[in-house]
Amino acid sequence: MAKGDRQAAAIVTWTRRTPLPNVASLVRRLLILAQREPLTAGALAVMAAIVVMAICAPLIATHDPLAADLRARLVGPSFNHFFGTDPLGRDIFSRVVYGARVSLLVGFAATFASMVLGTVAGVLSGYIGGAADQVIQRLMDAIQAIPALVFLMLVAAIWQQGILSVVVVLAILIAPYVGRLVRGVVLSLREEPFILAARAMGASDLRIMIVHILPNVMAPVIVAASIVVGGAILVEGALSFLGLGIPPDDPLWKTSWGAMLRPENLQYMQRAPHLALFPGAALALTVLAFNVLGDSLRDRLDPRLRGALQT
Amino acid sequence: MARYIMRRGIASILVIFLVSIFTFLLIHLQTGDALTVKLRQRLPEEQVQALRAQLGLDRPLWEQYWDWLSGVLRGDLGRSFFREQEPVWTRIKAALPVTMELVGIALVVSVAIGVPVGVVSAVRRNSFLDQMGRLFAVIGLAVPVFWLGTVVLTYGGIWFQYSPPLTFSYFWDDPLSNLEAMWLPGLVLGYNLSAINMRITRSSVLEVMRQDYVRTAWAKGLRERAVLVRHVLGNSLIPVVTILGNQFVYVVGATVIVEFLFHLPGIGFVALESISTRDYNLMQGTVLVIGVMVVLANFLIDLLYARLDPRIRLGAVASS
Known about the structure:
CATH class of chain A: Mainly Alpha
Largest sheet of chain B: none
Number of domains of chain A: 1
Number of strands of chain B: 0
CATH architecture of the domain at 88-276 in chain B: Orthogonal Bundle
Structural class of chain B: mainly alpha
Largest interface: A-B, 50 and 62 residues
Order of helices and strands of chain A: HHHHHHHHHHHHH
Oligomer: heterodimer
CATH topology of chain A: MetI-like fold
């Protein structure tokens, strides 16, 4: 069986295996997973907790994440403030809860957009070849030559600072990684008998790309995407940490985990290490969960890719 | 081999050229007009026009680009808006060694930790050591550098009364005080990178150990050490070299954070400063130099890769 077909088949079985909304069977499956792959199950639990936190933030937060209380500055963790308070007396637990929204939104949106961009570029580059391939490849090289963080700093300083520009720019910066992967798959697909057959039957290039090539590159793209999410979240954190991403008192998004670690807090951290610990741990745990799930998805969908793609 | 080098060289020059266009457009499509808008609020129209003419903002974009590029080719990156209009290149020249040293330390640390852990993990697959090694890598990939740096500074201060030195000296001026400032940030960056190295090494060693020639080596009755050192290690390190390029981009980006946290006057620090003071010429120059550094490093890695992999050296594989 051709490699592409195998990948397509893997996706089909994967979707078929996905349980119907039957609670009892879902629970049983999760229990089996927990027994066989405790790490994956743990990551799944962490992820579920973070998604719930992001969606139900107003219900879970115990305080207003932006309300300063100067009488309760830098209080350590307690029953009233689970994670303590920051130098302005804001409740860190509530801020961590709201911060999940930014991280998840940036992670998912940037990854999804980069998948679309990268797949289009990769399919065009691999299928058409020739001069178009060279141009697209050199463009991808050029994008990859500037560190993501530096590029984002530039955009934040000159164009616009905020969540939308972070998502758009991250999508452009991640796209080459996806694009290269897709290009490789397309190159090997191009000479497959079923593509040649389609061409012999008079299918147009556009039809071949959409109907025959696209479904076959989806599996590796999904795997790559699952691995990229964590990296996207980390870059947003770094940008907000440098003060060029989401501000620590954004009226709409409240705050980001990176912004909570802003270095102007460094002077207080030795007195109140909880300032540094909780937001950073939330960020690391989220990225950890995404990475572990990504690895497990990769092992399931495509054992050949093991270790091949790193971000 | 010569053909391969030529092709990579030409591609690299093309990429540098593209990077310069990116950088230029990113800054000039916006700032020219932003500047005018700012000025119009304060100055009469004729003066604004005069200033625009003086700064060359009234000319077509490609002409401005050409001016800048020809300056760059002559080694003139323009002048900073501040600091008595110090040439941008002077500033960058002072910062480059700091960043290169930091990147060097980080890469050495990451290889020194990542490769041995990866090899042990692969050779003793599924053992307790392997589990520990993989845990180490998974955590290393998830922990953000800026958090690791913050935590190191916080607890370093609490437990060891550590604080980064306030003054900085170059290695050739005062090696000891230089290293005193450098070792901790280098370690933080290096740990962060080592996780990737460990994973690549592990999967690559596993891959190589499945090869027929390794089985032959076992069958000949060679000792484990001989098999590993003579047959496995060399080939399994090739992927580690290939991803060094990706790592280099990443680590240069991460130096911004580390230099900022540990007060090191490197390129990342200059980049951040140019952005917070809106010093456009300095910004443009810094980003271009970072891009050139990355492309050059990738070119060198390609050469190294060609030396290591006979399939490329002998031209058996058409590279793209």
